[in-house]
Structures are given as structure tokens and as C-alpha cells.
Amino acid sequence: MLAGESVGFVPTMGALHEGHLALIRQAVKENQQVYVSIYVNPTQFGVNEDFNSYPQTLEVDLKRLEWLSADFWKDDSIGQITAVFTPTTKDMYPGLKPSSEIDAPGSFVTITPLSSILEGASRPVFFRGVATVCMKLFNVVQPDVVYFGQKDIQQTYVIQRMVEDFHLDTRVCVVPTVREPDGLAMSSRNVYLGERRRKVATVLIRALRAVQAAFISGQTRRDVLMAAARGVISQELAEQGILPPQARAMFEVDYFSLADPLSLKELDVVNPQQGAVLSGAIKMLPIEEPQVGENTGTGDGQTMVRLIDNLRLDPDSSVLRRPQSPAKSSSVSEAQ
Predict the structure, then answer these.
(1) For strand 80-85 and strand 33-38, is the pairing parallel, antiparallel, or unpaired?
(2) Which of 45, 82, 86, 148 is least crowded, fewest Cβ atoms below 10 Å from its Cβ?
(3) Which residue of the set 7, 12, 16, 20 is catalytic?
(4) CA 291 → CA 195, 237, 297, distances in Å?
(5) pTM of the model
(6) Is residue 40 a contact partner of residue 13, using CB atoms and an 8 Å limit?
(7) Distance between CA atoms of 226 and 258, rounded to whole angstroms?
(8) 17 included as an active-site residue
């Protein structure tokens, strides 16, 4: 690497999809050198989570990066993929064998209280593992800029806090979520869904967009906004519930959050000048009575698939679109 050249870094767990490639494309636009890591980190999986079945497609991933790199070499105005880092667990955890136990011994990075809410409440060791492995990777690569996707929005908050609190000499860049044409956020875990659950999985983004539409129309109270999400969820559950077992795809809601855009603390009322972060998680349950010849996805449809997604409620979008009464325009409660 030449002196003065900037280094961008895209950490991944492999099973690369267009969301990952979007991060890399953003990185080569902004840096001369780009490093990509592929490592499935065991410490961010809980004891009963899907570490052993998480899709690992290293050869395919390396081929995709090779093709992508070849495209970059054709454009002199952008940077290049300099290296792909594929460490072993012994490389990343040279001391004690890593453990997913909540009270496991070892060297960990914990970022509280951000790590204990939302995703952290459902997955208590997740952000401890994420922060720890990212600290290790940042120390190895020494990047100027690191790139993460907005789909994992709470993760971006945790990493940004870690960078600030530990005075790490890097900048965190958050790239918008890449979606399928029907709105489903791209995720390495989508390969588990199969055809039946894949059709229903859009219920999460549909619920989030219903809340977004309510906010744009002028609603700011939590109960009113969340009612929009519950309406979408209830309708989909009712429609699936009347189908026979061999045709339906059931799911459970893990959480929906309406949070302050700075702290991720839950809001009772959204300040239109500040906006909010709207996020949610659902669990697509194993399919019932899989049929002969049915596309059930990786794992024969028996792997529970947890999906997350989020939208930002942009500041002032409700104010700009809300019809205002001159006598009441200054009152938030009356304008709702």
C-alpha cells in the first residue's frame, strides 16, 4: 500500500449477497484500498442459535469477490479489493476457546446499555460477540473507514459507540439496506426460507411501511403508529391461520420498536423535528407438512428463521405532509 492511501474495510460472515456487494462498492468509491473479511464469529451466536447451520460458502464467496474485483480494475477512478481476510477461530481467539455462555470466561468488549436492548434482549451475547470480533478485526486491519449495512441498525450504533469510547482511529459508514423487489431485506439467512415462508416474510417490511405511512400522514403517538403495524401483522396471521397446515407459513413477532434516533430509547411520541428509528424482528416458524417437490429452502424448512428490518422515520416528513390548522399548528398533541 502506498503512503497516504486510505483503507476501507468490509467485515462479513460470508454467504455474500448483493447487500454485502453494495458495501464493497461503496468502499471502493471512497478508498484506494479495500479489505474484506469473511469469518463466522462463534461468540455472537447464543448457545441454542444457528451457528452450526449458518451458511458457509467460502469458495463461492471468493469467486464472487474475484469477479467483482475484475470489474473494479476496469475503472481507474475507484479503488480496488486489496485483500480478503479469512481468519480461523484460532487466529481470532488465540487464548481461551471462545464460548457463547453468558458468563463465559475470556476477553470481551461490552457496550452497555446499547447491547442489552432490542436485539440484545432477545440475543444476550450477540453484541458482546460482535463488538469483540470487530475490535479484533479493526486492530488487525487498521482501516480508515469501516462499512456496515443499515439492515443491522442497532449493530451500527454499537460499533459507533465502541469506536468513540475506545478512541479508535476509524470512521463508521452506514450504507442503506439492499432489498429484493418486493421489499424483503437481503440477508444470508434468507436461504432458509423456501418458497412458502419467503412469500410471508415480507410481512415485516409491510408492517414497518404501514407505520411509516402513518407517520408521514401526521401521526406521532406511539399507540397510533404501532397500531398500524399490528393491523398488518394481525391480518397476515389471520390469513395464514385459515390455511391448511400443508399450505401455511406461521410466524411470531419478537419485537417492534419506535426509538429515539440518537439513543435508541423507546418513544411515546415522535418529535417530528427529530424523527425516529422504527425496527422489528419476527421468527418464521418451521413449516408444517412439507410437500413432495416443495422448495423448502436450506434445512428442509425446519430451521426457525429470525428476520430483522428497520426504517428511519425522517425528521419533518410528517410536518411537511400534515395539513395544519393555523390555530393548532403549534400544538403537537392537538395536531395529531
Answers:
(1) parallel
(2) 86
(3) 20
(4) 12, 21, 12
(5) 0.91
(6) yes
(7) 8
(8) no
